[in-house]
Amino acid sequence: MKxxxxxxxxxxxxxxxxxxxxxxxxxxxxxxSRTGINRLHxxxxxxxxxxxxxxIGQKINCMLVIGEWDRExxxxxxxxxNKWGEDWNGSLYYRPLxxxxxxxxxxxxxxxxxxxxxxxxxxxxxxxxxxxxxxFYLPEGFEKGKAKRLVSDDHLRKHFDAFYQIYExxxxxxxxxxxASPCGIKEDPADGRLTAILHEYGIRFWxxxxxxxxxxxxxxxxxxxxxxxxxxxxxPWEVYDLDPDMIPTYDPSKSGIIGGHWVNLMRYNPKxxxxxxxxxxxxxxxxxxxxxxxxxxDVEFAHFQQLYHFYSKIEExxxxxxxxxxAVDAIxxxxxxxxxxxxxxxxxxxxxxxxxxMTVYEEKIDPMKFKEGFCNYKIERNGSSIVExxxxx
Length: 393
Prior knowledge:
This protein is an alpha/beta fold. Helices cover 21% and strands 27% of the residues. The chain starts with a strand and ends with a strand.
């Protein structure tokens, strides 16, 4: 019976590097890496993200690089944030009319949720030389080739303050709840310095690539912030004109939060961005037909569900299963008890839940192969750390 029940991993799409006005990778000229597509970014590049989110019923988590929106010179006083230092005078690629259209669209969006990614994504020396990819893990002594370390708390706060100042100046709406460090994590986060800063600025969810050698466990809670590893790399960061029907179906044992980049949804001709939209919908439908996957509603859904997946224990009973959530409850921030989602194969029989209210969330059943299907159930918890499910024939 135990094999018929699982706590599925939540598939949440996270798109890094949204917010640029120009896409070309200009690192060879000492400028930012941007998105990797050699054209201007336009309203259609945001519209395709919103359309995908609406089609699959998910708020796509878009990690914002905000520096090119700075029109008030905020970056002039932020260390290592740009090539020109105190002479920063805004981006050459900022286009007021396009920016106004994009802002209006984003502030009415229901399926795009911004997260914190960075100012201009990369780092420069005090004399304007390109230092490295990434903004928060810099070479020791600011010398190229040295091991990268997390910058000081003061350095972090200056960058965070600038991000939120620009966010407010522009007029963006929506609370920032999530964070992804550009270019991943470069040292063990065990000291908790970064999560303490994130919590201070109201961020509760952190996702990044990280090596198993650096951090063995893909999910943890620290200083009230939930961390989950980006389990899947959608494709190389700079790839566009991507046919989603060519992307494989993921193995649930290796999947989870999907790390992609804004440009991955684009066509070189932005007027053709929507040509692959149906393909992207099929891609997500294909993933969620796999037992062990559930499509996330938003970043909060994904992070809580991943905690349940990694920290819960399922034990078989005489006519069902017992799910022990005590390890999850011990680390959940602020004493909250979010809903639990479980997947149950139809051949197990009719499930009856104790210690919680269980309702059908979605069915994944082929009418011609009923006993090979499964249902995802939502369980509203009643305070107990034990959920018992038994089955009727």
